[in-house]
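Below is our example:

___
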Amino acid sequence: MVRQVNCDIPALALGTPALQVNQLQVGQRVKAEGFLAQRSMRTSQLVLHIDNIILE
């Protein structure tokens, strides 16, 4: 079964990935690699910690 899933996940980029994010244009497609972690110990909301960005 093929499904399409959409969701919004806050993302955090530090160092070199942050410099790359700063150069992006609105609507530009990218592939982001990293890991998901809880926003804090008090909430289960997820945040994507970006380690690498690939411009498309």
In short: The chain has one helix and three strands.
